[in-house]
Structures are given as C-alpha cells and as structure tokens.
Amino acid sequence: MKHHTTDAHTLAAAYALGALDDAERGDFEAHLQACAACRQEAAEFEATAARLAAAVSHTPPATAKAQVMAAIDGVRQLPPRIPTPSTAPAFGGLLRRRAVSLALAASVAAATLGGVAVWQTLHGQNLEQQARRAQQQLDAVSSILAAPDARTVHGKATNGALTTVVASERQNRAVFTTTGLPAADAGKTYQLWLAHDGTMRPAGLIDHDGTVILTGNPANAGAVGLTLEPAGGSPQPTTDPLLLMPLPA
Q1: Are 104 and 146 contacting, i.e. CB atoms less than 8 angstroms apart?
Q2: 151, 186, 146: which is closest to 165 by C-alpha?
Q3: How far apart are CA 25 and CA 163, in angstroms?
Q4: β-strand 199-206 against 243-246: which pairing, if any?
C-alpha cells in the first residue's frame, strides 16, 4: 500500500518497533533513502524502546520455574482466537492509527507483565494490584510516545547512566528513562527536576534504572535535571546536577 510523503513521516516509530506489514515496511524503507529526518527519528525510537524494555525488566526468582510448573496443570487453556473476515480488512487502518502504542506495549509488557495469569494464581490480590499499576503506567507511557508531536532526546549523566526523555507538547507530559544508573547510597535517592528560567522545580524521584513520567509542568521548561538528594527528595537541589539535559524542541 502506497503512502503520501506526509503519511510516511508518521510511520518512523511503527517501523522501528516492527509494527508495519511487509508492504508498508518496504514503502517506508524506500522513503528512508531520501529522508534523513526519518532515519534519525527511527533510530531514536529503536534506542528508546530498547531502553524502556531493559529498564523495566526483572530477573525472576530462582523458585519461579518450579512454582509455575507446579501450578500450570490448574490453569485452564483458552481456545485459539481466529479472526473473522469482517475484522481482518480493518486491521491495516487500525495499525496505522495505533501502531506506536501497541508495539511499545508489546516491548515493555513482555518484560513487565509476562506470566501474569499464572502468577495471579500463585500470589492473588497483591499481584493483581501490581499488574494493574504496571498496566496503568504502561498505558500512560505509551500515550506519550504515541503522541504525533512526540520528540526524543538522549543524554549521559556524569555517573555514566544513559538517559532518554520523550516529550509531547500537546499532552504537556514527558517520560524519563535511564539505564546504568548506579544504586544510590543508603538514605539517598535520585531526584528529577524541570528547569524553568533558571529555577529548578521538583519533577519526581527515581531510585534505580527505570522509566517514570515527569511530574510538574513540562510546558516552557528548558531542561531536565538529575541530582542525588536525601531520601524523600528536596524542595531545591542540594548537590551539583548529575545531568542537565535540554528538553526536546
């Protein structure tokens, strides 16, 4: 299926996340040959998706396999889902409208929500609440990355952590993710900041590698900062910034 040039620019994220069909991927790869902006945007989305997935992944406990194998006989199997002819033709249009959020959900959910059904059987209400919170966080992050005006910038903190910010001016929200962030000392935490005309305003806490939605008001903020603060955070930075990264324009 052929796309106009203006449509092709909107497919960079879906291409990077493997959410295009063969025809769309071929058309977009031809478009990439002549569009440096889309090549850069696709590369940035690939890096962002990889960091998001890595940031939320967890190593399962050593007892996980034995518990799952012991409980799996009691988990009812569902019949396969067979698409009906009435729903199949609409998939292409739906993909173009929701490719980013669905593909991002797949990449992050694989790390955060795998095996939820079995683990709910094993751990009950507590796990259900954790899964619900994880899904809500995933939906919010996906919404920002799927915004038509989403812009990405990458940085590196002085302690070696790699960082990414994806911001949507239309939604007035921004996502911060980091990998390689050293563990904070006891009684300390990492705090995020939004710089408004030289004034640093609190924008949330992050204790380790992960992804958070910045709190506060990103509108008109010039940069995102990261400092090491006392546990619970501070109203103003008390240490030199480990990172001061301009927000995506």
Answers
A1: yes
A2: 151
A3: 29
A4: unpaired
CA–CA dist 209, 187 (Å, integer):
18
Answer yes or no: do 196 and 216 share one domain. yes
HSE-CB at 117 with a 13 A cutoff on CA atoms is 7
Query: Could you tell me if 106 and 48 lie in one domain?
Result: yes
Is residue 216 within 8 Å of 223, Cβ to Cβ?
no
Give the relative orientation of helices 116-123 and 64-71 as an angle to the nearest 10 degrees.
Answer: 90
Q: What is the tally of structural domains in the chain?
A: 2
Q: Are 192 and 231 in contact (CB under 8 A)?
A: no
CB-CB contact of 224 with 243 (8 Å): yes
- List strand residue ranges (DSSP E) for the chain, in order: 151-156, 162-168, 173-179, 188-196, 199-206, 210-213, 223-230, 243-246
The model's pTM is 0.55
Per-residue pLDDT of the chain (249 residues; tens, 9 = 90+): 444 444 676 677 777 767 778 888 888 888 888 888 788 777 777 766 666 655 555 566 666 667 666 666 666 666 666 665 544 444 444 444 444 444 455 445 444 444 544 444 545 556 566 667 767 777 788 888 888 888 888 899 999 999 989 888 899 999 998 889 998 889 999 999 999 988 999 999 998 888 889 998 888 899 999 999 999 999 999 999 999 998 876
Residues 101/145, Cβ–Cβ less than 8 Å:
yes
| 217: DSSP letter | -
* 167/95 same-domain check: no
> Domain residues for 197?
151-246
- 123 torsion bin: left (phi>0), alpha (psi -120 to 50), beta (else): alpha
